[in-house]
Amino acid sequence: MQNGYSESFNGKFRDEHLNEWCWFETLHQARMAVAVWRTDYNEVRPHSSLRRMPPARFAELHRQRAGDATQFPSTPIPIE
User: Fold this and answer.
1) How far apart are CA 2 and CA 35, in angstroms?
2) How far apart are CA 30 and CA 34, in angstroms?
3) Threshold 0.85, pTM exceeds
4) Cβ(44)–Cβ(57) below 8 Å
5) Which of 6, 1, 34 is nearest to 18 (CA)?
6) What DSSP character marks residue 47?
7) Are 30 and 22 contacting, i.e. CB atoms less than 8 angstroms apart?
8) What is the pLDDT along the chain (80 residues), one digit of tens a residue?
9) Integer-rounded Cα radius of gyration of the chain
């Protein structure tokens, strides 16, 4: 079974980035273009699956909430 998330990302990457460029003349040029696209994808562009937030912002909020959870652990209820 193939990973739907990977397939979705690969399709978006090809459609939105690779198909925009006809040829890369050097490996450095290709790496720089991918770095620009990756920054936009992860830090600028909102994603509908993440409540219209960029992934970097969503991850930051997740880390904050996880930190809050460790500061105030819930008391486990013993099972009898």
Assistant:
1) 26
2) 6
3) no
4) no
5) 34
6) B
7) no
8) 568 878 888 888 888 777 776 688 899 998 998 899 889 988 999 988 888 999 999 999 999 888 776 665 555 555 55
9) 19
